[in-house]
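Hi V.,

You were right to ask for the full record rather than a summary. Here it is.
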Amino acid sequence: MTPPSRRAFATAALASLLVSCGGHPADRTETTPGRGTTPPSVPTPARQSANAARALRRSVPVRLRVPAIGVDTPLIRLGLTPGGGVEVPPVTAHDRAGWYQFSPTPGQTGPSVILGHVTVGAYGDGVFRHLARLRRGDRIEARLENRTTAVFTVDSVRTVAKAEFPADAVYGDVDRPELRLITCGGPRTGDGYLDNVIVFATLSSASP
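Predicted structure:
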């Protein structure tokens, strides 16, 4: 499948990341945006770091580790739904995060996007249940198919209303390798959440 244009990418992402993270087993569909009260305070990711590492060659990510919050998960590939939105990981007992395969691979120039659930219906907590606890300077490791580990450093963690999802800040062009981790958060309403939690991180090193 041909990757979508930047505008199509942002539109699809905006539609599909407004998801219910408290859904039912096997539910992978989008939901209507909630009406949150958190202001859309996510800026374009900071560019002041002089320690960003050189971009890596394309290699599909197979595993994600976030030591500060105990995340160690295989990564599945996520594509597009029939309606043109970005898929989200399936709601299962053994929850896994997913890499959106039309974004750059971790370590390539641009924003690589990884999605995960905060809760998985009757199964309880999701793989990104503690994502909002991350802080600037925390380490994120993406293990790639070519056996390289791309190491990212958290720049910022923001919680924003789903109705005000900052697509340009999340998916807009950047001139260095960056990573976005995204889940639901904030107040819960029915089967869903009103907000999204977004982690912005920058590639800091790579190792075999």
